[in-house]
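Structure first, sequence second, as always.
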C-alpha cells in the first residue's frame, strides 16, 4: 500500500477531528463568526469523504488488485484529484455552507468516485472470492447512496427545500454510506485478510451472513424516514430489518468463533485488542438498532440529538476508525506500527469511549427529564479533545521509523 495515501487520509482525519472539537468548544464559549451548521457540514464531509473514503480507497487497491493494475496512473490521478475536492470542502463548507463552491467540490468528489469504482470493478473482473463479492457490494452501496445527493439539488431550489423529502434524501445518502459502503468495505478487507492467510470459514454461513446483512441494510433505512412518516408500516419494516441484522450478527459469531484461535495466532495482542473493540462497537450498533424495534424507543432515538450524534460517532469512530487503525497496525508494520502510533491510538480510544459514554448518559437524562449533568459541555469538550490529539500523534508516528 502507498504510505503517502494513508498519511493523507490521516491528515484529513486530523483536520476533521480538530473541527469537531471546535464545535464542542462553541458550547463552552461563544466563538464569534462561527457558522455552526456550515462548520458541521465541513466536519462531516471531511470525516466521511476525506478519512474513511480515502482510507478504504488506499487499502482496496493493493489488497484486491493485481500488481500491474495497482500501478495504473488513473488511480493516483483520481486519488489526488479527490484530495483536492476534500480540501475544497474543508474550506468552502465552513464559509458558505451549501453554496456554489462547496457543491462544486462535493459534485467533483462524487464524479471521481464513479471513475474510481468503474476502473476498480473492471480490474476486479474474474475474481470470484467471497471478499471480492463484498467489495463489489460496498461499491454498489456507494454509488446508490449518491442518488440521495443528486435528489438534493432539485429539492433545494424548489418549494421542497427543508421538507420531509429533502431530509429523506440526506438520510438516504448517510444511511447507505455508513451502513452500506463503509461497513461492507471494512468487512471486505477483513474477509480478504482471512483468505490470504488461509483461514477458512463455513461458506454456507458466510453466504447467510451476506444475504442477511444486505436485507437488513435496505430495510433499516425505514427508521431514517420514520420521523417524517411515523406510519406503523414504516416501523414494521425497520423492525424486520433490525431482526435480520441481529440474525446476521449471530451468524457472523457462529462463522468467526471457530477461527478465533487461528486469527489470534497471526496478529499481535495489541492489534487483536483493537479488532475486539471495533467488534464490540459493531455489536453495540446492532443492539442499539434492535432497541428501536419498540416504536417509543425509536421516537426517542431520532428526536434526542445526543443519541443521534452518539450513534453516528459509534459507527464512524468505534467501528470504522478502530478497524482501520487495527488493520494498518497489522498490515503496515514497516511504517505505521510503533510506540508513537499506539500511544496516539490509545488517546483516541480514550476520547471515543469517554465522549460516547457522556453523550448517551446525557441523552438518557434528557429522556428521563432529569436535565443536564454538571459541567456537561466542558466535560464533553475535554473528552473530545483527546481525539484530535490522538489522531495527531498517530499521524506523526506514521512518519517515524518502525518500532518508534
Amino acid at each position: 500500500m502507498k504510505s503517502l495515501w494513508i498519511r493523507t487520509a490521516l491528515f484529513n482525519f486530523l483536520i476533521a477531528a480538530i473541527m469537531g472539537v471546535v464545535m464542542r468548544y462553541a458550547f463552552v464559549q461563544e466563538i464569534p463568526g462561527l457558522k455552526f451548521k456550515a462548520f458541521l457540514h465541513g466536519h462531516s464531509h471531511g470525516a466521511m469523504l476525506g478519512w474513511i473514503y480515502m482510507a478504504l480507497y488506499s487499502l482496496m487497491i493493493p489488497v484486491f488488485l493485481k500488481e500491474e493494475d495497482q500501478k495504473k496512473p488513473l488511480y493516483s490521478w483520481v486519488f489526488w484529484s479527490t484530495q483536492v475536492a476534500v480540501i475544497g470542502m474543508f474550506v468552502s463548507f465552513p464559509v458558505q455552507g451549501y453554496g456554489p463552491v462547496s457543491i462544486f467540490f462535493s459534485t467533483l468528489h462524487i464524479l471521481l468516485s464513479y471513475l474510481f469504482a468503474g476502473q476498480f470493478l473492471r480490474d476486479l473482473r474474474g475474481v470470484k472470492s467471497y471478499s471480492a463479492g463484498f467489495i463489489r457490494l460496498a461499491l454498489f452501496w456507494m454509488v446508490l447512496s449518491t442518488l440521495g445527493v443528486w435528489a438534493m439539488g432539485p429539492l433545494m431550489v424548489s418549494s421542497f427545500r427543508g421538507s420531509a423529502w429533502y431530509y429523506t434524501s440526506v438520510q438516504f445518502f448517510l444511511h447507505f454510506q455508513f451502513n452500506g459502503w463503509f461497513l461492507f468495505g471494512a468487512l471486505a478487507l477483513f474477509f480478504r485478510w482471512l483468505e490470504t492467510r488461509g483461514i477458512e470459514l463455513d461458506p454456507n454461513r458466510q453466504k447467510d451472513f451476506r444475504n442477511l446483512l444486505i436485507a437488513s441494510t435496505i430495510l433499516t433505512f425505514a427508521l431514517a424516514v420514520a420521523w417524517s412518516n411515523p406510519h406503523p408500516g414504516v416501523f414494521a419494516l425497520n423492525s424486520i430489518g433490525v431482526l435480520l441484522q441481529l440474525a446476521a450478527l449471530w451468524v457472523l459469531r457462529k462463522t468467526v468463533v471457530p477461527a478465533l484461535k487461528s486469527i489470534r495466532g497471526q496478529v499481535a495482542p495489541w492489534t487483536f485488542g483493537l479488532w475486539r473493540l471495533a467488534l464490540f462497537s459493531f455489536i453495540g450498533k446492532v443492539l442499539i438498532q434492535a432497541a428501536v424495534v419498540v416504536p417509543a424507543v425509536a421516537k426517542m432515538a431520532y428526536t434526542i440529538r445526543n443519541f443521534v450524534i452518539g450513534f453516528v460517532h459509534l459507527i464512524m469512530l468505534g467501528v470504522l476508525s478502530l478497524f482501520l487503525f487495527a488493520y494498518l497496525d497489522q498490515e503496515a508494520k514497516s511504517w505505521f506500527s510503533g510506540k508513537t502510533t499506539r500511544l496516539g491510538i490509545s488517546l483516541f480510544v480514550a476520547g471515543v469511549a469517554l465522549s460516547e459514554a457522556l453523550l448517551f448518559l446525557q441523552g438518557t437524562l434528557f429522556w428521563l427529564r432529569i436535565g443536564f449533568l454538571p459541567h456537561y459541555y466542558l466535560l464533553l469538550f475535554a473528552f473530545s479533545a483527546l481525539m484530535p490529539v490522538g489522531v495527531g500523534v498517530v499521524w506523526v508516528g506514521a512518519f517515524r521509523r518502525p518500532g518508534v
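Margin note: The chain has a mean pLDDT of 91.
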